[in-house]
Amino acid sequence: MAQPLHEKYKYNLMVTLLCSTALLSPVALMTGTAQAQTAPASQTHHFNIPSKSVAAALADIGAVSGYRIAYAFKLPAGAKTKALSGTMTAEQAVSHVLTGTDVQYRTTGSRSIVLERSENPVGNQTSSDGSLQLNTITVSSGVAPADIPYTTSGSHAYLSAEQIENVKGTSPGDLLSGIPGVLNGENRNSGSLDVNIRGLQGQGRAPVVVDGATQETNVYRGYNGAQSRSYIDPDFIGSVSVEKGPSAGIDANGAIGGVVRMSTIGAKDILLPEKNIGIRLKGAFNTNSSSVPDVSTAGGIRGAGSHANNSLPTAFGGSGGMDRPAFLNPTGGSGSVALAARTENFEVVGAYARRKNGNYHAGKQGSDAAYPILTPTNYGTTVSYGGLSQYRAGEEVLNTSTDNESWLLKGKYTSDNGHKIELGYMKYSSTYGEIMPTQIWNTFSSGPYQGYLNDVELDTYTAQYHYSPDDNDLINLKINAYYTDLELKINSAMKTDTQITPVLWYSGNKRKGISATNTSRFETAFGDFSVNYGAGFVREDLGYPKGYNYKPSDNMDLGPGREGHREEWNAMIAAEWKPTDWLTFSPGVRYSHYKSYDLNPGLQNGMNGQELFYGDKIKNTDGGWSPTATLTVEPLDGWRIYGKASSVLRSPSAFESLKGFSFSDFGNKVNVSPERNKSYEIGTSYLTDGVFLPDDTLRLHAAYFNNHVKNYLTRTGVPKEMFPGFYYEYLTLVNLDYAKMSGIEMTAEYDTGQYFGSISWNHYIDTMYCAKDGTLLAKRTQCAAGGLYNSYTLQQVPPKDTLTLHLGARFMEEKLTVGSRIMYVGKRMVEGIGDGSEDSYLGGQLHASKWNPYTIVDLYMNYKHNDNLEFNAGIDNVTDRYYMDALNASLMPAPGRTFRLAMTAKF
């Protein structure tokens, strides 16, 4: 018979209902729950912790109770605790776990416990009043971030600020390199992030979320594609987490491929352990770059065509760009200053960063660089070229410079009764080089050239509220709001033999978002339950930057850019039921609905050429349900086996649902349907310590994934009958029948304390893209593993295999860390379209990404002299390999051997 509901839980249920209403009114919540009290020391929690290591058991206690458990020494390793089961206070649970050890505990606040050895630990000091002053404190309030990928059901990755510093590379996307199943598309052109997760990329399929804000903007890149861009300064990144596959998170609506979540630096990243106010100074330099030359400066190999023998060039390319600086000659750099202050309840951070680098130089080793091919003919000699691009070994790669300024301001207030408010502002301003991809593909006779520098300005405002009262398991409320204002000014210089023609692609993108979620936890006779539920809303406005008015002459009369706005809201609920300590079932469902309003004018021929005309705004709308479910079995402590299945909707983005050049004739409605990814994943993970040595740690993960995206959206060539029997292909947006990609990934990490290493492997089993009947010309391949003719999919097909080996060691009492990362990127799944046709490699007007397999070796060193001073050094691409990145849309080789040195000082 069911037990009667306790009066306390009747009150808690009432409070939960009030807080659910307050999801729509934060003010109501703040006033309506003002009577919440600080948790009494006697508050009890239900624990069900099997025998495990002391550290792991304490982490579980922190996760259940919300207590912070701090210690400044290594806990006993190898020995297992006694199983802990029952209802008790956090202090009682900690006492049980520490039984038989030489560790004691004391409470230091309503939710804080400090551990101490029975005797004063070496390095700590006792003050005159007899209290213990700890040195570096390790705070445990649950699972360590680095362990989350191995203690959750799914495929995740985590990068700390230290890991990012070690392998940040030259381009922003380099910080994601080495993560299995994750690549950055078009990595060397524009200085932005366009993340590909498990073959899914662009248009919100794999968004980048920074401090809860999304600022992705989509940019037309000519015949050779479109790019979804996100921007951030690497000096401001505190950590990165990647969730692969569909997510139940409120910030993952439409993210059918996965989510990249970044957090900016906080006070803990700046302050010394014993300080409440401080400053952090960072300075760095790099090598392997040259100053940006004048606009229209030519580069690369040239001289293609037929030549009489007496007119054959003696050199196929000028000397410009071949004067690569010496290996240790500083040619670029960055610097930042960050200040922080904190009290018991307040924290504030302010930071400024500047980063400047010229055009980098390609590597010199390997056989992929450009070289001339001379073929004798009856009339002289025909010149063509070999290699992956027109750039020569060691040559300056034009249009790869960056000149960035960034500002950050954050403030946080934490009350004693569970309220937390955080406000933030970040500005990113960059003048950078990029070039329209087709301008490299189509310029062999004259070679690549330096274009105009472009500008991006991004302002991001964030506000986060969190309420989690100590004495109420039914309330864990989070409200997140953000506003991003992005202005992008691209001048894509179009070069002919005689002149440079400016082509302006100016766009403004304003995005507003708000979401609220609450988590309620229940203990029943049938097991533990938790329910997370909430709603979110996003509005995106597209137009032009402030002060700019469109003129048809600005972009060669190709038509105005996209103008209009898009709104989408979603509501979700996700539950977790744990009937036993070894079985967990997690179902969830989301409903989303979008509508877009197209305000774009049309074009008509007037007396003075092309003129604009305005009609009624065009509306698009659609929506649907997205169910998910996960089943997890934990047969042994630290070992979990899981299966995930989902059917997730992605509605057309603003770029896809509004008219614009290359997608639809002006005046016509963009008529497309949402995508639906029916995916599943089966995987296992294992985390344990004390395997071979008392203090070692072993982490393992393996998974099989399968994405099947119905109604996949892409641009491709659609036939249009001009007159009977004659068809013309025009480029526009269509829904394919489906796109699918499946594969496996494996990761293993081992750390002894002094030595550490990891290996990860991602292997694609299958990719396929199929058009609906009648979409393409009959002569085109209707289903292809390498992407469809004239389709964006040609640039999103991943390498069949990627393999990363990471080895390192710590010396001098862990002050010095040295390491090496070796990355292998295999061949594309198939060459070109993959059907063997004559034009399958190029794909028509839109070219398939092209690279050869490559192996890159990086070295790094971190030396922490003391808490005040730290040095980082690295050599990227040690072997100076000339290579093209996977998923490139532009024929721009990656940077050659580059030396980096950085110093961080804290005061």
From TrEMBL:
Family: Belongs to the TonB-dependent receptor family.
One Pfam entry name: TonB_dep_Rec_b-barrel
Main location: membrane
Membrane topology: Multi-pass membrane protein
Signal peptide (residue range): 1-36
Keywords: Cell outer membrane, Ion transport, Iron, Iron transport, Membrane, Receptor, Signal, TonB box, Transmembrane, Transmembrane beta strand, Transport
Localization of this protein: Cell outer membrane
Protein's name according to its UniProt entry: Heme transporter BhuA
Motif extent (TonB C-terminal box): 890-907
Organism: Paenochrobactrum glaciei
Matching InterPro entries: Beta-barrel_TonB (IPR000531), Beta-barrel_TonB_sf (IPR036942), Plug_dom (IPR012910), Plug_dom_sf (IPR037066), Secretin/TonB_short_N (IPR011662), TonB-dep_rcpt-like (IPR039426), TonB_rcpt_CS (IPR010917)
Annotated SUPFAM superfamilies: Porins (SSF56935)
Record bears the keyword Protein biosynthesis: no
Residue stretches making up the Secretin/TonB short N-terminal domain: 67-118
